[in-house]
Each structure stands twice: as C-alpha cells, then as structure tokens.
Amino acid sequence: MNIAILSRGANLYSTRSLVKAAEQRNHSIEVIDPTYCQMLIEEGKPKVFYFEEEVNDLHAIIPRIGASNTFQGCTVTRHFEAMNVFATVTSEAILRSRDKWSSFQILANKGVAVPKTAFADFNFNLDHILSQFDHGPLIIKVLEGTHGNGVMLAPDKKTAQSMLEAFASQKIKILIQEFIAESKGEDLRAIVVDGVVVAAMKRKSANGDFRSNLHRGGSSFKINLNYQEEALALKAAKALKLGVCGVDMLRSDQGPMVLEVNSTPGLEGIEKTTGINIAKSIIGYAERNKK
C-alpha cells in the first residue's frame, strides 16, 4: 500500500511510530505537511500537489492534524477523500471533535455520560449560567485547546464569575464544567481503533495541578478498563464517527464520564506506558479499508 501521514511534525514520536509500523509491514509511506499541499479541481476531478509534485497514488492517509492547523489540515484531508483515498479519521470527524462544545452536544444526543457542562458566550447572562451549578469548584475551558492548555480551575463561584467576565471582555467563548472531586486528579485514556479499545492507561496529576496531562508532569499506569468504561469509550468514538481516537474519562460516583475525545491522540505516552504498539493497529485499520 501507499500511505501518507498528514503531519507537520515528521520527527514527532507519533509520526515516527506510524512510519516504522508501516515499513515493518512492507508499505510505502511518506509524511506530507498539509501546509504545503496545493489543491485543484480540474474538469470536475480533485487533484493534490505536494509542492509542485502531484500526489495521485495513495491508498490511505493518516491525518495527524494539530489544533493550530485544523482548517488547512481538514481541507487537505477532505480533498483526498474526494479522490477516494481512505482516511483513518475523516475531515468531518476531526472538525466535530475539535470543537469541545459541538462534541459534547453530539455525545449528549447519543446518550454518552459527560460531566454537567454549560456553554458561555460573551452575550450570555453569566449569573444565570453559574446559578445552574450547585457549588464550586468549577472547571473553565476554552473551546479549543490541547495538553491541558486553556483549562482552568475556579475554586468557587466568585472566582468563576471574575474569570468569565474577563473572557467575556475579550469575546472568548468558553465552557463551564462541574468539578468531579472524587476523581482525585486521575483520569483514564483509552485508544480506540476501528471500534476496538486497543490500549488504556490511568493518568494521575502532578502535585499541585488538577490536570493529569503527561505534558504537565503527570504520571501514567497501564490498566484494564472495566466493562462499563470500555463500553463508554466505544460509544463515544462511535457517536463522533472517529475511526481512531483517544477517549479521556473520569471515574465519578455516578459511573464513568467522558471528559474529552481527541481525534489526534499522541502515541508516545500510552505506547511507552502500556508497551502496546498502537501504530501497528492503525496501520492494520488502513489495510482493511484499502480502496
């Protein structure tokens, strides 16, 4: 097969892991930076040029689209889809998952358990929004962000009010979410590939931080999800129509809840933590769907 990874970071661990897995299975693989893709529609047929060279021999693409390159990356992914090239994650699925509020709306519609969450625009009555929550602390999130960036903890409603007013003054749309104290700074990450949980780990926050992201010094441990947790991860991936994704969950007194679904999950932390070759599973998914 001829496979391309759409990534701006050829030297990133996840990209290198995918390249290695593809080469071990005797595929021809290249890394294409979507920033340098030129797209054309000629006589009703879509074409893609990487720099000045036409790309017309791919069987599959693996989008690794960063948050800072969502529009260009999804546009290029959509163009390859129009050329009948299989994408392990579709352009529309990336867009659905990248907007936190849109993804929560979809998850709620499909009956996926999530923490109590409110959307706050700068035109909204902030007092009324805060009145919907019984008490603090509260989590404040910007609509787009990765590695814990744009996620803040307000210890009480008064502090949350000040934070919301500051965001409103800058016309920034945010989410307000209940704080699940019983999770004790821990969350679960499950990697789903083609409707199967292929790996899972528990992440624990570093001292003094409520976020468990490994990029922020958190620690991680290999785990086996229970039936309810695995079913929830699969349900979330299916709801957002993601062939490959990372599902972050919290353990609450009401059962597991989905915190976020990532369409471009990093592989380094979970591959090293679990010893599982997730990249191999992703390549296998592309093999099964060769067009």
TrEMBL record:
SUPFAM superfamilies the record matches: Glutathione synthetase ATP-binding domain-like
Keywords: ATP-binding, Ligase, Magnesium, Manganese, Metal-binding, Nucleotide-binding, Protein biosynthesis, Ribonucleoprotein, Ribosomal protein
ATP-grasp domain location: 104-287
One GO location term (cellular component): ribosome
InterPro entries: ATP-grasp, ATP-grasp_RimK-type, ATP_grasp_subdomain_1, Rimk_N, Rp_bS6_RimK/Lys_biosynth_LsyX
Segments forming a coiled coil: none
Gene3D superfamilies: 3.40.50.20, ATP-grasp fold, A domain, ATP-grasp fold, B domain
GO terms of molecular function: ligase activity
Key word Nucleotide-binding present: yes
Pfam families reported in the protein's UniProt record: RimK, Rimk_N
PROSITE patterns hit by this protein: ATP_GRASP
Cofactor(s) for this UniProt protein: Mg(2+); Mn(2+)
PANTHER family assigned to the protein according to its UniProt record, in alphabetical order: RIBOSOMAL PROTEIN BS6--L-GLUTAMATE LIGASE (PTHR21621:SF7), RIBOSOMAL PROTEIN S6 MODIFICATION PROTEIN (PTHR21621)
Protein name, entry field: 30S ribosomal protein S6--L-glutamate ligase
Organism per entry: Gangjinia marincola
Name of the gene: rimK_3
